[in-house]
TrEMBL record, chains A, B:
GO biological process: thiamine biosynthetic process; thiamine diphosphate biosynthetic process
Chain sites annotated for binding Mg(2+) 4: 32, 47, 78
Pathway(s) it belongs to: Cofactor biosynthesis; thiamine diphosphate biosynthesis; thiamine diphosphate from thiamine phosphate: step 1/1
Binding site for Mg(2+) 5: 217
Top EC class for this record: transferase
Protein name per Swiss-Prot or TrEMBL: Thiamine-monophosphate kinase
One function term, GO molecular function aspect: magnesium ion binding
Lineage start: Bacteria, Pseudomonadati, Thermodesulfobacteriota, Desulfuromonadia, Geobacterales
Residues that coordinate or bind Mg(2+) 2: 49, 78
Chain residues that bind ATP: 125-126, 152, 216
NCBIfam families on file: thiL
Catalytic activity: thiamine phosphate + ATP = thiamine diphosphate + ADP
Matching InterPro entries: PurM-like_C_dom, PurM-like_C_sf, PurM-like_N, PurM-like_N_sf, ThiL-like
Amino acid sequence: MNIASLGEFGLIGRIAERVSTKDGVRCGIGDDAAALEPAAGSVQLVTSDMLLEGVHFDLAYTPPELLGRKSLAVNLSDMAAMGGKARWFLLSLGLPAATDVTFLDRFVSGMLEMAGLYGVALVGGDTCASKSGLVISITLIGEQLPNRVVYRSGAKPGDLICVTGTLGDSALGLAELRQGKRDGVAVARHLDPVPRCSEGLMLAEAGIPSAMIDLSDGLLADLGHILEGSGAGARFEISKIPCSPHFSEHAAKLGADPLPLALSGGEDYELLFTAAPECWPDIEKLFAGAPSQVTVIGEITAAGGIQAVLPSGERYLPDSEGFRHF
Amino acid sequence: MNIASLGEFGLIGRIAERVSTKDGVRCGIGDDAAALEPAAGSVQLVTSDMLLEGVHFDLAYTPPELLGRKSLAVNLSDMAAMGGKARWFLLSLGLPAATDVTFLDRFVSGMLEMAGLYGVALVGGDTCASKSGLVISITLIGEQLPNRVVYRSGAKPGDLICVTGTLGDSALGLAELRQGKRDGVAVARHLDPVPRCSEGLMLAEAGIPSAMIDLSDGLLADLGHILEGSGAGARFEISKIPCSPHFSEHAAKLGADPLPLALSGGEDYELLFTAAPECWPDIEKLFAGAPSQVTVIGEITAAGGIQAVLPSGERYLPDSEGFRHF
């Protein structure tokens, strides 16, 4: 059965019946707007990401469940980067009329599974016919106390530059997928990224990061955003970039230069944050119980753009700074 | 110059520099999420609408400024239907790389003009390349006191069924546009709808409507949503449907049956609300100073679906109930 025979309201009903009610939802799917109850004294954090077929994902190698998971994960990652607690989301879908209902069900299953894991509720959105591929737009709403929200603009000279997890796996996975590989650590990192929600939240609630961003465009580009926001420069050592054993082994095999993958490949969905050096013991303590590791790769400087230093002591000059949409 | 030569961050900067700061915006465009300060004690109302080229709009006859205005207007209309005060919005844009910057500038001008008129601030969103036409997704956030929010579910037998403005003009305008006409009252109603924000807000704040919805899918379909939400039926008289003089004159000329246009044409963006009969004097008083008229077309019944009564006393049986996406 395809979407066309289900009809718009059949489609909405099919999604709505799978959503369980959540905290703070006075009215969810099925009215002109959702009615939500924010926590008293909190700032509301709102982020949107749009994913287009043929641009952000390729259905030839993306299982619908993972597409559902990833569509929400990329928004959760933005929320993590603000230090926010994600609460609710809206899903707008443009669907080709020939879309099979099984595809929709699997997509929604993945998304709602991810929503359950991170404690967020689907509260509304929009559905419409698309004449040109699948269109996904998600808006995620979260909250945090005003003095605990972390922006891109607070990095200060002398601050440590820290990253969670490992970099480059996702870009390697995409390259592998394009070469026909369908499994492995890197492919999983690309198709099913893990947003660093607990890490972002615990850092923010401990008041540690002076600035934070999620690594979606690649380390060089996203560090650049922090520097631009903070009016500062940065110096880091290439040898300190955390890479997975899988990455170190397979990137070279692929015939690709591993450095651009790790520095500019994008879609790592790790957190990049800066913090005063005296915070380091607290950071180590926090990450002792965290799902991901944390690594110091360099420090914020007063100016001078980004200096990426090779083991030889020379400055690394990248060809590209990150994914560019246009 | 096209979007590709501007680049993603050039594009975001070009939009951001035209946005003036607004109330309650702690952080707007340019971070991972917007940080907003809700009014204490309010419920947050959140609505999303997606507009796809070739489905919701045709660039052959839609000036970019009006597309910008309408994209926001349809969201403002949803907010009006909840009785909410619109405050902030996020704009996600999928743009073909060849899009001319002039098109973007004109689109943004129209949208920000509309935003200024209704006191809402652009606070974030997403931009990406689209390989298949223009994609617009807007999320609008507003607020209202919990006991003043109006849902679809409160209509009770005996309540009056009221509509603002006139119906059918937009559908007539669309038919005219498709026949090559480019101006006139109906074309303007289709390309540049006026959301009934002040009407929705004043009704809600006076505590008058038992249920409310905006007429986007057509009177029959949208009244159906209220009845479904409220577990009730409705009876109304076809002769009482408010139509503009332009509509009465031109619908027949067009060779179209005017009744389906007024009942099921959709995109009127008027408000349909129900209210206890004893509220009528207050409703009349409120609308004495309002931009639009208000008309009682019938009443809510205990059950029986929708009975649309013709002047002959016979029941009108529509071919179609409203716009269907699939």
